[in-house]
Design goal:
- The chain is of the alpha/beta class.
- Helices cover 47% and strands 12% of the residues.
- It has a five-stranded parallel β-sheet with strand order 6-3-2-7-10, sandwiched between helices. Strands 5-4-13 form a three-stranded mixed β-sheet.
- The protein binds D-mannonic acid.
- D-mannonic acid (CS2) binds next to helix 10.
């Protein structure tokens, strides 16, 4: 059978090739505008909405994707070409694979081409929710003070050009202003990034911006807009050409941007929506009054656990997370970090067995068919570690708890940022908005063992903590001297 291109016209011919949407996509209303349509949004929220359309005909909740950056143009072109359809490929640990065409995204707007179209879409009466996955680094706050960063030139631009925004804050404000003028209720703003209290944080940032731009709208937001905190979870590696070929060869479907994911999926949300919401509880989404314990558990164990494997994995030359888990030294090191440094500060979480949760994380990380690259995990570590790992270290410093595993990872991160090369001599690709600053701080290490810690934006005042600085200096020296990260990990066990 010849491979057929994935698009709306060909969909009816796919029925015997793989699962396709059974609902009529042309009759759907757009209830959600989503900013940041990466793989994760497509394996998680868009998949939940797809199931809701499939099983409960939730016709008011189709999604319009939005890309704010020029870098999103490729995604815009591919999705448009495929009528916003894509295949979700779920890889089970035992080798089973499920492929399904997802139809819940029905539009996509590239903001840089026409900001007004995006503002109008968000301000449309059918839009009830604006959700976001703009990554941990996308929230524009100063990690030192926790306050909104007004120095960002794009923010300055948005303050003086309210109708031609560039940032997420400018767009949210322009759309809310328009809704207010049209006497429409505001939308809910739903952050789906891995940040503790993501909704509260976004609310604080938007209110800071709004207060400078338009106090009347700021008051309205403060009173009327819901910002539910959420915990989101599904491991979604970067799509590789192997998956694209797999779909061609196995299902004879040509999909330029399919998404791969693990079978596990979880979403815990605070039920604080200002303008209605889809009935996601029908699909097992947990609506809770307070998401704090769930998000803390997930970010401090799963996301930090990933970095604890990924950074030394990159130095040692393990290309994937499951490869790290196959190495008993790495697997045990990560579990020790979880048991000795994270579990004591998590306390009891009602209804959750933390030991079982950690066991399940080990199984998920070890899934041999996911092939999650350590380079994805290490990407943007400067934005991730201050949210995933450093808070744990701080809490342990306050309580006199163990800090050796977390400190080891920070010292390894310094070595990684300095050398840019694996221990086996292969090059190391570092993807980080702060790459230059990280390298500059790290390269002074051999003259000043704690130079890496002088990056206040990341470490704040940690370089003033005697216990930590002593431990860090000693570990970093051994890493530089021995040049054998795995051996040192072994010694710490
Ligand atoms: C990962 C996350 O980027 C990372 O460092 O830990 O993308 C992780 O895979 C997801 O949060 C899983 O839900």
């Amino acid at each position: 059978m010849e491979s057929l291109k994935l698009n709306a016209q060909n969909l009816s011919k796919f029925a015997d090739r793989l699962a396709v949407p059974k609902y009529d996509r042309s009759s759907l209303k757009t209830g959600i505008v989503h900013i940041g349509v990466g793989g994760f949004h497509r394996s998680h929220q868009a998949y939940y909405i797809h199931q809701l359309l499939e099983k409960y005909s939730a016709k008011d909740w189709a999604i319009c994707g939005v890309g704010l950056r020029e870098a999103d143009r490729n995604m815009a072109n591919v999705l448009e070409d495929q009528d916003y359809l894509y295949t979700l490929v779920t890889q089970y640990p035992d080798g089973k694979v499920e492929s399904e065409v997802i139809g819940s995204i029905t539009e996509y707007l590239l903001a840089v081409d026409n900001p007004q179209l995006v503002i109008d879409k968000m301000a449309h009466p059918n839009t009830k929710i604006v959700s976001l996955t703009i990554t941990e680094g996308g929230y524009n706050f100063n990690p030192n003070t926790g306050e909104f960063d007004f120095k960002n030139p794009d923010i300055q631009h948005d303050l003086s050009h309210p109708n031609q925004p560039k940032t997420v804050y400018g767009y949210l404000m322009a759309a809310l202003r328009k809704r207010h003028a049209n006497e429409l209720p505001p939308f809910t703003i739903l952050s789906c990034d891995n940040i503790q209290h993501n909704g509260d944080m976004l609310r604080k940032m938007l209110l800071a911006f709004a207060t400078k731009q338009d106090i009347k709208i700021a008051d309205w937001i403060a009173k009327e807009v819901g910002f539910p905190n959420t915990m989101v979870d599904r491991i979604t590696p970067i799509t590789t050409s192997e998956v694209t070929s797999y779909l061609e060869n196995t299902h004879q479907v040509t999909d330029e941007w399919c998404v791969v994911c693990e079978p596990f999926i979880q979403w815990v949300v605070e039920d604080n929506f200002s303008n209605g919401r889809p009935q996601l509880e029908k699909l097992g989404v947990q609506f809770v009054p307070d998401v704090t314990p769930y998000e803390k558990m997930k970010i401090r164990l799963l996301n930090a656990g990933h970095s604890v494997l990924g950074i030394p994995g990159a130095i040692h030359g393990h290309p994937t997370i499951d490869g790290c888990m196959e190495d008993a030294v790495f697997a045990k090191f990560m579990r020790q970090f979880m048991d000795k440094e994270v579990t004591p500060i998590l306390g009891k979480i009602e209804g959750v067995d933390i030991e079982k949760y950690k066991d399940s994380l080990e199984n998920r990380f070890a899934n041999p068919n996911i092939k999650d690259s350590v380079s994805r995990i290490c990407a943007e570590s400067a934005a991730k570690l201050p949210k995933f790992l450093i808070p744990t270290l701080r809490e342990n410093l306050e309580n006199g708890g163990s800090i050796k595993y977390a400190t080891f990872i920070l010292a390894a991160w310094c070595y990684y940022s300095d050398k840019g090369i694996q221990e086996n001599g292969e090059p190391l690709e570092i993807i980080d908005a702060q790459k230059k600053a990280l390298h500059q701080a790290a390269q002074k290490t051999e003259n000043d063992w704690t130079s890496f810690l002088n990056q206040d934006e990341i470490f704040e005042n940690l370089n003033k903590n005697e216990r930590f600085v002593k431990e860090y200096a000693s570990i970093v020296q051994t890493i530089y001297r021995e040049k054998n990260i795995r051996k040192l990990m072994h010694e710490l066990l």
